[in-house]
Design goal:
six-stranded parallel sheet; 330 residues; Rossmann fold; 15 helices
Length: 330
């Protein structure tokens, strides 16, 4: 039976990078169903990301929903009035709640017992064993809606609908004319294999020699770790760790001239803003670039020759700098 959705609830209550790679799904749904309403269920942490997507009509906060009583949760879920829910990241509590709320079509991968018992439109595939990119794997969940073709990564990037907020960050950052700024997002809170801080020090020195200002971003705790374990913060290097909200970080990325990071949320933000980025990756599945690379048109990936048993990715600072030099000369 053909499904003609009126209101689709997309559930992905996890991290920034995962959400960024789900936004193209919203654009594709609007392309196939121009009148459909899209609500995105996410965490408070990713709200600024979700609300920056032109294809999302409403944000539903899982952190707030989770704190409610069972009756309040049920009433809130019913009030969304969705006729389709897509569990991109199938959290058990949400899967059960969507069924209790009476959402008619409930889509998820058939990889967990609770999705098989609570979802009536299971999709059979394995993310871990697939050669597709994460953003393309998300699209496989749309097959119950009649969407079978998997777009290219460049097409998915064009569908993201992601734009930086129009806010001032002059209290933290004022861009000087004719000066380039490259963000170094050094740490990833354990979500990816990183370069060492020593490598970021080397890159910062090379950038300064080429009259490019390194800008260090991260949480306050990450900033303390960087200061305690490296000499990265020095004259000519701009330290913005612990100073920016997520919305301000997005605005900063939009004003800078590039970004370097491992497989983290800021890398995907910069990429989908079409900034030149260098992503640093391990070759090991399933964390390799084939699954998690940034999808922007100016994205560049460098993969280490081997997965480090411990320590850093074996990628040189000169190799990273070379990409930006060539990009700026093009």
């Amino acid at each position: 039976m053909k499904i003609n959705p009126e209101h689709i609830l997309i559930s992905r209550p996890d991290s920034i990078g995962d959400v960024m790679l789900t936004l193209p799904m919203c654009g594709l749904l609007k392309q196939y169903f121009p009148k459909v309403k899209v609500t995105f269920l996410g965490k408070s942490y990713t709200q600024d990301i979700i609300e920056a997507c032109a294809h999302v009509d409403h944000f539903l906060n899982w952190d707030q929903l989770e704190s409610m009583s069972p009756t309040e949760q049920l009433n809130t879920m019913r009030s969304v009035n969705a006729d389709v829910v897509i569990h991109v990241f199938p959290k058990k509590e949400i899967v059960w709640l969507a069924k209790k709320a009476g959402i008619r079509y409930r889509i998820a991968t058939a990889r967990r017992w609770y999705t098989l018992t609570k979802c009536n439109k299971p999709v059979f595939f394995s993310r871990r064993k697939s050669d597709l990119h994460e953003s393309q794997l998300n699209i496989k969940l749309l097959s119950p809606l009649g969407i079978e073709d998997i777009p290219t990564l460049s097409d998915l990037n064009a569908l993201s609908g992601f734009a930086a907020p129009n806010i001032s960050i002059e209290d933290f950052f004022i861009k000087k004319p004719n000066q380039r700024y490259i963000i170094l997002h050094c740490l990833s809170q354990g979500s990816a294999v990183n370069w060492s801080l020593k490598k970021f020090e080397e890159l910062a020195s090379l950038l300064l020699q080429n009259h490019i200002t390194p800008v260090i971003t991260g949480t306050a705790a990450e900033g303390e770790k960087i200061k305690s374990n490296s000499n990265l913060i020095k004259d000519g290097v701009m330290d913005l760790t612990g100073k920016l909200s997520l919305k301000q970080l997005i605005a900063l990325i939009a004003q800078c001239d590039g970004l370097v990071a491992a497989s983290t949320g800021p890398l995907h933000i910069a990429s989908q803003l079409d900034k030149p980025v260098v992503g640093l990756y391990s070759p090991m599945r399933p964390i390799h670039a084939g699954r998690w690379a940034p999808i922007g048109k100016n994205a560049h990936v460098i993969t280490a020759p081997e997965h480090p048993a411990e320590g850093e990715l074996k990628i040189s600072a000169e190799e990273v700098l070379d990409f930006f030099i060539r990009f700026y000369k093009a």
